[in-house]
Amino acid sequence: MKLDAILWDYDGTIVNSVPKNIDITKRILSIVAPHLTGDNLPYCLQSEAAYHQVNHTAKNWQELYVKYYGMTESEMLAAGALWTEHQLSNTTPVTLFAGVEDTVRRLAAVPHGICSQNAAKNIKGVLAEAQVDTFFQAVIGYDDVSQSGQKPSPEGGIRCLEQLFATPVNKVIMYVGDHQADVQFARNLQSELGQDSTVISVAAAYSGAMPDKWQAKPDFIIRTPMELTAICELYL
């Protein structure tokens, strides 16, 4: 079994974007839900630790906004529409997790792609600044797929593979993510590609995720990015 590609989640897997995401969310709340600012700021936006906990618990960003931030459905939709604009204009530094650069360099012989609910333009900018952009031949953000095609729908994965290969079928793919929805995404991608393909799910636990407690179980768990190299060697 030969590994054909490694696909990555972005937030919480490649980069620690929590400080930036918190700052963006506060600014958006001040516009669409000012009643949730100041003394009424949701607890989960008051520290990185609290944000990590709810972010890894929520099924998706919509549930995060409504269930954990306390936004109404209409406020959530309005906030989502503002995300890209504020994400691109926000200057809060975003850094790669220690070990990510060394990992992708060691695995450079395998094509890499990103499937994320972040904006593709933002992702590419951060990768370029960190000088690792050349290792990622395909980047699919939430703005590259339909609203109904957001993860865990496999739509973004199919689009990513179509940028990497002439055909996405009959491939062995590894997907690395820090959320239970990333495991579901890998399973849905497997179903979409069919039995002639293999999708291996790897859970990244180094950003605070607790995969041992997930209902959807990954094939592997890594505690540091460099642990991915040993797993990949099983398929090379």
Automatic annotation (TrEMBL):
Q: Which GO terms describe its cellular component?
A: cytosol
Matching InterPro entries: HAD-like_hydrolase_sf, HAD-like_sf, HAD-SF_hydro_IA, HAD_2, HAD_sf
Q: In which pathway does it act?
A: Organic acid metabolism; glycolate biosynthesis; glycolate from 2-phosphoglycolate: step 1/1
Question: A Pfam family in this protein?
Answer: HAD_2
GO biological process annotations for this chain's record?
A: DNA repair
Coiled-coil blocks: none
Q: Name one GO molecular function term.
A: phosphoglycolate phosphatase activity
Q: Which reaction does it catalyse?
A: 2-phosphoglycolate + H2O = glycolate + phosphate
Q: What is its EC number?
A: 3.1.3.18
| Family membership | Belongs to the HAD-like hydrolase superfamily. CbbY/CbbZ/Gph/YieH family.
Which NCBIfam families does the record match to this protein?
A: HAD-SF-IA-v1
Q: What is the designated name of this protein?
A: phosphoglycolate phosphatase
List the source organism: Photobacterium gaetbulicola
